[in-house]
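COURSE: Structural Biology Practicum
ASSIGNMENT: Worksheet 4, Part C
STUDENT ID: 0417
INSTRUCTIONS: Below are two proteins. For each, the amino acid sequence is given first, followed by its structure token string. Answer the questions at the end about the second protein only.

PROTEIN I
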Amino acid sequence: MSYNARFRIWRGDDTDGELEDFSVEVKEGEVILDIIHRLQATQTPDLAVRWNCKAGKCGSCSAEVNGRPRLMCMTRMSTFTEDEVITVTPLRAFPVIKDLVTDVSFNYQKAREVPAFAPPMELALGEYRMQQVDVERSQEFRKCIECFLCQDTCHVIRDHDENKESFAGPRFFIRLASWTCTRWTPRTASAKRRRPTAWACATSPSAAPRCAPSTSRSRTTRSSR
């Protein structure tokens, strides 16, 4: 059984963009990533999306589906009704490169700064011993698939403008509305345009001021992880 679903996909880069509407065929058993691939093949071949394994193992296809951080390869179309409009946008906590692809290089930069483990120099090779509890602690971190959805969910990054610049690195700055607002506006430090882009506010036009991003700026920055 198949049907035509309505999608709204973020199209743009780090300076400007908007949500575009698509009507695309959906087949039984498919996931969001299947639909994105069909859009690339049939309607918008220049749509940028990051993916790799399509099995929930690599974390590459992270995005926000209807405002919630998800892996597109693990989000089944059967969870939505046939008349529902499905909105797919890039992760809010990271700078947009193009369309659904965000710049997560900050995480790899910080990972390279973590020093490699070295046993005490006074011990000969093979003499160092570790407790099993310490082995289990280190193995816990190896379970991470680097989807970065935990960071996208974190309100300290999503909702506080003063933290985004240090988190995203010196080249980027994302200006976002509050968590309760449906307007989504990527910005960079060098961006000069200030007209709103992206999510049209779900409320009436008269309610738009409630969705406007805060203009207050704090100089406090988050410490590096």
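PROTEIN II
(use this one for the questions)
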Amino acid sequence: MLSVTPPNRTRALTNLLVFNTLRITKAKNPGDTYYEEYIKHWTREGTKFFDQYHYAIMKVIQKRPARILEIGVRTGSSICNMLSAYINYNDIKRIVLIDIWNDTFSSPELVKINLKLLNIPAEVISKIEFKRADSRKEVPKLQGEFDYILVDGDHSKETAIKDLEAVVRLCAQGGVIVFDDISEYGCNLKDVWDDFKAKHTGEFKFEENIKGKGVGWAIKL
């Protein structure tokens, strides 16, 4: 497995932004443990810590994705971190968020609250397509292409590979599919990621970093 270590400056900048976002949203989500869990990753990895939140921020700085799809949203930490990195929101054309939101804690309404806490403009939030649905049924219905696709939903191996395969047709040329939780500190989905890489060799450029929960990304060639 090729593990990519982003430059020190990138890791330092993205860590500052990630922890600031998690601290802000923690105020409205006292029962959520994402902040505490990320502190544990930071304690273990130190300045090498780099995860899917960090990658999303880095991608905004580099490419400013116009069309975003997330499978697995929960309280919205991923989209909160990502949208916090934009300067010009006119760059964004479409955002689709898919989750079943069935844990009695999270909801589309809570995602909106967290985005408002971060001063994401109301006109951006109003354009988000919230889809409360099973990704296995909803993703095949989607039309169009996306520049940034996060697969972070049901972490069973069976569903994870189905989600990955389902989004291949939706990834624009030069776009990226991001897959979370591949390391032993995540959900140990390395084998799912490796199988996906083997099947799509030549279609994507694959990289990953395991200094956290483990994040892999595939850039469409």
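ANSWER KEY EXCERPT:
Q1: The beta strands are 67-71, 94-99, 129-132, 146-151, 171-180, 204-209, 215-220.
Q2: The domain at 8-220 is CATH 3.40.50.150 (Rossmann fold).
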